[in-house]
Design brief:
The complex is a heterotrimer. Chain A is an alpha/beta fold. Chain A contains nine helices and 20 strands. Chain A has two domains: 179 residues, FAD/NAD(P)-binding domain; 164 residues, D-Amino Acid Oxidase, Chain A, domain 2 (2-Layer Sandwich), CATH 3.30.9.10. Chain A has an eight-stranded mixed β-sheet with strand order 6-7-5-15-16-17-14-18. The radius of gyration of chain A is 21 Å and the shape is globular. The mean pLDDT of chain A is 95. The model of chain B has no long low-confidence stretch (mean pLDDT 95). Helix content of chain B is 32%, strand content 24%. Chain B is an alpha/beta fold. In chain B, α1 packs across α2 and α3 runs parallel beside α4. In chain B, the strands form six sheets. In chain B, strands 1, 2, 3, 4, 5, 6 and 19 form a seven-stranded mixed β-sheet that branches. By secondary structure, chain C is mainly β. Chain C has a single domain, classed as 2Fe-2S iron-sulphur cluster binding domain, sarcosine oxidase, alpha subunit, N-terminal domain (Ubiquitin-like (UB roll)). Chain C is 8% helix and 32% strand. Classes of the chains: A alpha/beta, B alpha/beta, C mainly beta. The interface between A and C is small, with 10 and 11 residues.
Chain lengths: 393, 463, 93
């Protein structure tokens, strides 16, 4: 079978779904957009990650990106809904003296961006979150963060795209087998079911982004899976209503790794607790980080360490029934920044991937920025630091 | 290393039903140390449920002839529990590796280390969603059996029994034994379909005796099995008060327009059983699918050995077959283990009995393959996933966008992601979501814990 | 009231509370069956729509009978009654 499309989005996870949504929003309804995923829609990393909407203040660029995105999430909740949006805010918890020292630093970072977070002492922490242990010396509360259920959000965005544009076609279980070239550019995407003539392709395949890149014979896109172990409780047992993070999470999660991500057995892994209350009263417990290829077996030792930290902060979680534990694979880019933009050597080939642990937070802005660039509009946020060109050799 | 939370045994047995008891009894009699883990409170499993300790229920309710065998089995098993068998009841097994079984027991996290393992976890009821099936008072046939035979509690005044297959009869007789009026007993299969079971029953002396016994009980109570009927809906204010029943065609599709309303305060639904294979999949044992064996079941060789070294499986986990199959296979698994331990060759009669019981069960159950048309009982607003309150409509929308696999439907609407881990909705979820009544379930992806256990249990699990 | 099958003889009584109300059970009862015997069939409110749910499988599979016992969420069909235990309806408040 052969068909044509103006744009083919490869990857139906949260990023591909957002790209499709904003393309449908910015381009006319005569634009035919095909989204293909080799498996279920939102069935890989988007179904096995946490749902953190997180504003990161450590530098102005990333603040702009995450703040814009989290604001977009609020709008998506109002426009589309159906993905358990939960504006929990976030409590950054300090335990050690070193942690305590991070509180004013983080507070200043928010202030420097014109935003606000509240410094809490031991008593105030418990007032905001009675489920916490009574010996947490201090915390920072940021009210702008939230939690969503990513796989439902991906579905909502794709349905939203289809509602705006009947020419948005979603294909689950439709693996891309190859990309045909026309000179430097692209002429078609070959899937297991059809050949789709197109000049524009968005590669939003998360940890599989490099595999699609390889089809074009380019240098390998430097994205590597970084495993996280997660556990979720049953419903109506969460002792907390606010999202919790160890403040050391920031050091741990949003710094470049010292470990070579291509080595799958050199990383002993790390953990810093992140607990997310769900709208159904469950609690999602993370998070750990480890490079070990695409292995999805739970690392019992790391999982236990994060459960231990969870119990240290929230003693009541000890008796909560754990319904499921699993591993999600984050798409880690080698410089720990996402790739959002054109891959210059191949006109018409775009990349939207490599968000590591901030893929859910950054999904809307990523979709918006890709759609704006494809539509020839000025991007709402400076994309220069995120252009894939930095990796073109 | 061993503390009181870690125990050691030659053989670990999961399940104290007929299969587990038969295996444990024989192994223990040969001098091996056996630990049996069971979630119930007493030996017997679901089929030979015993009343709580200290309850005098002897002779209170009429029992089918096969239960004599059950009593014998329990008696010899319990005799061994005074010697080489330790039965740990109230144990929830939540993770397994060859040689190791992790379980939660009275709030403690424990580990059983064993050189061999016999999996005999049995089965659970297959549920078919229909409007009103979430009302309190509507339950599985198995639940009624537990209530009556396991706890001596009276389910209600007027009971409706619906479903398909040989388990309807014991459900009816238990209700009668408990003094409950059975207002109707509806077998969804047609009489013609059920007749296909006749040769298998007629040729098997014990099953023949059993069938006559049940028919006698029913006729004495003037309860008539209505063939080709089932429940269309249950209604009531906070609990079931009435049921809408009607006729179904040969594939189980409801024939709208044949409805009748019937007053009742309890409904038992038994649409067959599903093998409890999760632990086997976790251990890496291969599986096969056969509708007449209840769905996915574990593959074993002619001596009950799985392809995973030291792991044996018996009874319902190898395909639904009933107590006689389970006990015969349990004995065979024990013989295989004893030979591996350097004992005598397996008695060919033991092999022959297990095989002939399995053949007889297969040929009888062929007549009661799940009727795909029953999946049309649910309406768009009927909840199909009870844990997450997901309707048939929502599951259908998920399948339309995310894909038709079990995984796709789960991620698309969260169906099957609750604490039952899709044991209840799973067998019919794909048929419901795709509106393809004949669609069977994908092999489940098993994650740890195998059943929910506390965070503390996972955290403190011995290695 | 559903009650007990006649002729079972006497068993030791165990007192506990369900949503604050006193319940007399028999030693060896599961919570679910003790409550059924006194006519309490709705054991939890369902997760999102909050409709009443009760015993479905009675053998620890379905998690429809979840209740809260002294702060912990448990299956009432596999948890035995203990004297003085405080049981609350499970699920959505």
């Amino acid at each position: 079978m052969s068909e044509t499309a103006d744009i083919v989005v490869i990857g139906g996870g949260i990023i591909g779904s957002s790209v499709a949504y904003y393309l449908a929003k910015l381009l006319g309804i005569s634009t035919r957009i095909v989204i293909c995923d080799r498996g279920p829609i939102a069935g890989a990393t988007s179904a096995s990650c946490m749902g953190h909407l997180m504003v990161t203040p450590d530098n102005a660029q990333e603040y702009a990106l995450t703040k814009t995105s989290v604001d977009l999430w609020r709008g998506l909740h109002e426009d589309l809904g159906g993905f358990d949006y939960n504006p929990t805010g976030a409590l950054y918890l300090a335990e050690t003296d070193e942690d305590q020292e991070m509180i004013p630093v983080l507070h200043k970072q928010f202030a420097d961006n014109g935003d606000q977070a509240d410094v809490l002492d031991q008593k105030q922490v418990r007032e905001i979150e009675p489920g916490l242990a009574d010996d947490i010396p201090g915390a920072l509360f940021y009210s702008g963060d939230g939690v969503v259920l990513p796989m439902l959000a991906a579905g909502a965005m794709l349905r939203g795209a289809q509602a705006r544009n009947p020419n948005v076609i979603v294909r689950a279980n439709c693996a891309v087998k190859g990309i045909e070239r026309d000179g430097d550019g692209i002429s078609a995407v070959v899937t297991e079911h059809s050949v789709i003539a197109t000049k524009t392709v968005v590669n939003a395949c998360g940890i599989w982004t490099p595999d699609i890149g390889d089809m074009l014979g380019q240098s390998r896109i430097p994205i590597y899976p970084r495993a996280g172990n997660l556990a979720i409780t049953g419903h109506h047992v969460s002792p907390i209503r606010t999202q919790l993070l160890e403040i050391s999470y920031l050091r741990f999660a949003h710094a470049t790794s010292g470990v070579d991500p291509t080595k799958t057995d050199a990383d002993s892994g790390g953990h810093a607790v992140n607990m997310q209350p769900q709208t159904n009263g469950g609690c999602l417990i993370g998070s750990t980080r480890q490079f070990r290829g695409r292995n999805k077996e739970v690392n019992r030792d790391l999982l236990r360490r994060s459960l231990q930290r969870a119990q240290r902060y929230v003693p009541g979680i000890a008796q909560a029934p754990i319904v499921r534990t699993w591993v999600g694979l984050r798409p880690y880019s080698i410089d720990n920044h996402p790739l959002i933009g054109p891959w210059d050597p191949v006109p018409g080939f775009w990349i939207a991937a490599g968000h590591e642990g901030l893929g859910i937070s950054m999904a809307p802005v990523t979709g918006l920025l890709i759609a704006q660039q494809i539509a020839g509009m000025t991007p709402s946020v400076n994309v220069a630091p995120y252009l894939p060109a930095r990796f073109v050799s | 290393m061993s503390d009181d939370r870690t125990i050691e045994a030659d053989v670990g047995v999961v399940g104290a039903g007929p299969g587990g008891m038969a295996a444990a009894t024989k192994l223990a009699a040969a001098g091996l140390r056996v630990v049996v883990l069971d979630e119930g409170q007493r030996a017997g499993g679901q089929i030979y449920r015993q009343l709580p300790n200290g309850t005098n229920g002897h002779g209170l309710m009429a029992e089918p002839p096969s239960h004599d065998q059950g009593h014998e089995l329990i008696k010899s098993f319990e005799k061994q529990t005074e010697r080489n068998v330790e039965l740990i009841h109230g144990a929830t097994v939540w993770d397994a590796q060859p040689g190791r079984l992790w379980f939660e027991h009275e709030g403690a996290s424990r580990l059983l280390r064993c050189r061999h393992m016999v999996l005999a976890p049995g089965a659970y009821d297959r549920c078919i969603p229909f409007p009103g099936w979430t009302l309190p008072g509507v339950m599985t046939a198995g639940a009624l059996q537990v209530m009556i035979r396991g706890f001596g509690v009276v389910p209600g005044k007027r009971a409706l029994v619906v479903g398909s297959g040989p388990l309807l009869l014991p459900t009816v007789t238990s209700l009668l034994g408990a003094g409950v009026e059975v207002v109707a007993a509806l077998e969804a299969s047609s009489r013609w379909q059920a007749l296909r079971a006749l040769p298998a029953v007629a040729l098997h002396a014990a099953r023949r005796r059993e069938a006559f016994w049940y028919l006698k009980q029913l006729s004495r109570a003037r309860v008539k099995l209505q063939w080709g009927w089932t429940v269309f809906a249950c209604e009531g204010d906070g609990r079931v008060q009435r049921a809408i029943i009607g006729k179904v065609d040969r594939s189980g599709r409801p024939r709208r327009g044949t409805e009748r309303t019937i007053e009742c305060d309890v409904v038992g639904a038994g649409f067959g059983l599903v093998p409890s294979i999760e632990i086997g999949l976790r251990l890496g044992v291969a599986s096969q699918f056969a509708a007449t064996r209840g769905g996915h079941y574990l593959v074993v060789d002619a001596e009950q050995r799985t392809a995973v070294a030291t792991v044996f499986a018996v009874g319902e986990i190898c395909g639904i077959g009933g107590a006689e199959v389970a006990s015969a296979e349990g004995e065979l698994a024990a013989a295989s283990i004893l030979r591996e331990e350097g004992g005598a060759a397996i008695d060919p009669a033991v092999v022959a009995r297990a095989r002939s019981e399995r053949r007889a069960a297969d040929s009888m159950l062929r007549a009661f393959a799940p009727l795909p048309g029953l999946h049309e009982l649910a309406r768009p607003d009927t909840i199909v996933c009870r844990c997450e309150d997901i309707t048939k409509l929502a599951a259908g929308q998920a399948a339309a966008l995310h894909g038709e696999s079990m995984r796709a439907i789960k991620v698309g609407c969260r169906a099957g992601m609750g604490p039952c881990q899709a044991r209840i909705c799973g067998p019919s979820l794909q048929a419901m979501a795709t509106d393809n009544t004949a669609c069977t379930m994908d092999l489940p992806v098993v994650q740890v814990p195998l059943k929910p256990v506390s965070s503390e249990t996972i955290l403190t699990a011995p290695e | 009231m559903s009650g007990r099958i006649a002729g079972l003889g006497e068993r030791e009584l165990v007192e506990f509370t369900f949503d604050g109300e006193q319940v007399s059970a028999w030693a060896g009862d599961s919570i679910a069956m003790a409550l059924w015997a006194v006519g309490q069939q709705a054991l939890r409110n369902s997760s999102s729509v909050g409709e009443p749910r009760g015993v479905l499988c009675n053998m620890g599979i379905c998690y429809e009978c979840l209740v809260v016992v002294d702060g912990a969420t448990v299956r009432s069909c596999t948890t035995m009654v203990r004297s003085g235990m405080k049981v609350q309806r499970g699920g959505k408040l």
